[in-house]
Write a structure and sequence with these properties.
Blueprint (H helix, E strand, L loop, with lengths): L1 H16 L4 E11 L5 E12 L2 E10 L9 E12 L7 E16 L2 E19 L2 E11 L9 E11 L1
Antiparallel strand pairs: 1-2, 1-8, 2-3, 3-4, 4-5, 5-6, 6-7, 7-8
């Protein structure tokens, strides 16, 4: 009997404490500053449960041969730790993850596994539309031409 009551209380607490999941999508543009400033653009799709979120992201940076800067394509999966709600319209987050990258410069190319760490904020603009500002450091594999790579971006984020 005691076991049934304990399970019942645990179930009730779980149901009462449950929060709805949310998802968002971001289209962004920014700068990859390593080894030279170049435009980066991409997108991300994520979902979250209160303070923990998960995200898939793709980004592309073109090469700049005069600066000896390779193109960089990244496809990353990340975990986000974020505030449970926005404070004065601002929701900060920390993120880390890993995935595949590809660098190319002339005839040189490298494809491998990379890690990234960073953070940012999502600022409420109107309704479900938010401005997302993000900074990341990418630690690319040992064959990479430019590692670590630094990226900053601003994007439009739609929460649904």
């Amino acid at each position: 009997m005691m076991r049934i009551r304990t399970v019942g209380i645990g179930l009730a607490v779980s149901v009462l404490a449950a929060t709805p999941a949310s998802a968002d999508i971001t289209a962004f543009i920014g700068a990859n500053t390593t080894p030279a400033n170049r435009q980066v653009r991409g997108g991300a799709l994520g979902f979250g449960l209160l303070i923990v979120g998960f995200e898939l992201e793709y980004a592309f940076t073109p090469d700049a041969p005069p600066a000896n800067a390779p193109s960089l394509k990244t496809g990353m999966g990340n975990v986000l730790l974020q505030s449970p709600t926005a404070f004065f319209g601002v929701q900060p987050y920390f993120t880390t993850g890993g995935g595949i990258y590809r660098e190319e410069l002339g005839l040189q190319q490298d494809t491998g596994f990379g890690l990234n760490t960073g953070g940012g904020v999502k600022v409420t603009l109107i309704g479900p539309v938010r401005l997302r500002v993000d900074y990341r450091v990418f630690k690319l594999g040992s064959g990479a031409l430019s590692s670590p790579a630094h990226r900053i971006y601003a994007g439009l984020n739609l929460k649904f």
